[in-house]
Design a protein that fits this description.
The chain crosses the membrane at residues 21-43, 177-203, 224-255, 275-298. This is Cell division protein FtsX. It is a multi-pass membrane protein. Residues 56-161 form the FtsX extracellular domain. 69% of the residues lie in helices and 8% in strands. By secondary structure, the protein is of the alpha+beta class. The protein has 2 domains: 2-52 and 169-301, no CATH class; 55-164, Alpha-Beta Plaits (2-Layer Sandwich). α2 (18-55) packs antiparallel against α9 and α8 packs antiparallel against α9 (272-301). The chain is elongated and about 95 Å long.
Amino acid sequence: MRAGFILSEVGSGLKKNFSMVLSVILVTFVSLLFVGAAILLQMQVGQMKDYWYDRVQVSVFLCPPDSEATNCVDGEVTDAQKKNIEDALAGPELAPYVDTVYFEDKAEAYKHFQDQFKGTSLEGTVPESDMNESYRIKLKDAEKYEIIKEYFSSTQGVEEVVDQNQLLDRLFGVLNVATVVAVVIAGIMLLCAMLLIATTIRLSAFARRRETGIMRLVGASNSFIQLPFLLEGVIAAAIGATLAAGTLGLLVHFGVSGWLQEQATGFNLISGVDVLIVAPILIAIGVVMAGASSLITLNKYTKV
């Protein structure tokens, strides 16, 4: 009997305040869409870090002819200088950091240059004799790349030390900024949703003040009076959260796992499984947000 009465009151409240309830659903949907996007973006950043940092290399470029670098004052790198560099890479001081070393000669460097700039104005502009020979170093711990850079920065015969981590750090920095922006927007929208839920509950309580007055007279408890109003806000927020999760699922399925995965072959992107992990979080945030906002409002306007 009590459950049926509460459900009927909830249904009545949702019908009477349909426009406000719809507004709550839409605001919750948009805010949690940003929250979910921020979470998924961070999950993608984590996957990309695991992939790229495992494959990152430090390239030690040797002096080519006519280089103006400080370590190349004697001209092109000599065999003796190459031997010193190879001994250092194989020595005990760098052994804890170096995993594998690959030497790229001028012919290979020239081939890679031609492949990279094929069909552009740069193709064929640099002769093979002017290409840099280099040592490509795979590290045991990619985050230790600064050690290799500092070690060879003043070594004779070395023109430049380039680590791919610098480029990756910039990329991940941009993605992290995008995450922060999404979180800020989501926070603003969540605040709007909480205020709108509070307004909706207050209007609903005011519209049914006669019914709540009668319930007080017959001895109904405060929690029994408040429960229908609380459920109205929670249901509206839960619907908005579910819509946000469903939208993210569609975007990931068709946009990321579909089109983007075909363009970015070679490493994994987020998938529907990740959305299934995020969905309960979004629903929980929506329910807690609506519950807290509703309770604060109800304690003020329906207190016995």
